[in-house]
Amino acid sequence: MVAEYRPRLTGDGDQNGALLRGLLNDSEPGRVFLPTGSYPITGGLVLTDSWRLCGSGTTLWRREAEEAPLIHVLGSGVSVTDLTLELPDATPGPHDGAEWTAITIGRYFYTEKPEWIERITVERVVIRRAARCPANNITLIGAVRAARIANVEVHGGGTAVMAHWGAVGAAVNDITGHSLHPHHFQVEGLRVHDAFEAFCLSSVHDVEVRDVRCERVEIGFRLLPGDNTDRYHEKGADSGINRRLSIRGCDIGWCGDLYAIRVAGWGRSEVDGTVTTRAYTDLVVRDVTVRTLPLVVHGRAPREGRRPIVIEDAGLVDLDHVRVLSDGAVVNASHVHGAPGGPGTAGG
Question: Where does the source fall among the domains of life (predicted)?
Fold first, then answer.
């Protein structure tokens, strides 16, 4: 029988954080049913194996930005469901994508080869920030597989869902072991408003993304091979990175000044500056619409060279029924192929 817990929260964020951390640290794993209402919280909550965090008309909110994820998943068989998470704007550094988040699954850097975490669900979660900012909302990173992110709504912030490689080491320029690449996960029913980007897949494989709707984003999505592609993967060229990615059914309301979609097959290492490439195999980008909106960028002047779709050293990319709309008219549509051999662009 699964243990059940129904903690009583109050208007004191310090007290709420301490109460929930004590429960998660000291009790037998089970289901935590949070009460209906809006509650402040300070500090982060770490979910290890077999914890299920459930809301019911529940909002957890932070008064001030904190580096620790509000919810950090570090175990298998974990679920986070039916919650609203409200965070202030934050300005993390360029390699702090696993911190300052609403939810982080996994780690960026490990001191030794880790066990993989798996069977993780994030479903029916709403994340709100006051405005667009550099902080990711959900980050899935490192030794993570068999995860599902479904029916998530994001307002503001940086990237709504970031999936990114991790590694054994101390920093991006100090990798001492193998790299670790999330795989076999799904993102479905993602709704994004006024964020920097809907989603980014960096150095992953066997991923399905479908039914994404976003409005007023500077970037719809990026597909990237990672800084080091497969250089540090224990299987090297047989790593599977950039294989079997499926992106289907996306509607992108694009207000950015660079691109709505970028598919890149090259990465520059932060370790030694080496540039390596990794082409895509079995990549499906299908039934995607980019709606061109008036330019709205955050924190700087707009740049020139706006292009809806950019393909760079990615191998043969087949864009099937991908459309770009400008003022309601289709300006490019269906079956565009990006050939290897240097940066290229396609209108749709």
Answer: Bacteria
